Amino acid sequence: MGFFGFLLLGLIAGAIAKLILPGKQGGGWFITLLLGVVGALLGGFLGGILFNAPLQDFFSIQTWLLAIGGSILVLLIYGLIVGRRKA
Description:
Shape: globular
Structural class: mainly alpha
Number of strands: 0
Radius of gyration: 13 Å
Largest sheet: none
Distance between the termini: 41 Å
Number of helices: 3
């Protein structure tokens, strides 16, 4: 998967993660892109270690599920950090 494919995957995974999680998360499209890319990296890393998952195909459901799962995890951590700062 190329660089722009990875950015697109991260952006879409971050947006889906924001839709799945309840409540209002801060941040605009740039934060969504950043969290999605970090989440896709984390999901791919953990998927490779835990499940020995190959993640080269952009259109693989396995790649998407791991990227979305990683994005949800990163978004939860982000919400905990930002939520503490505001309180």
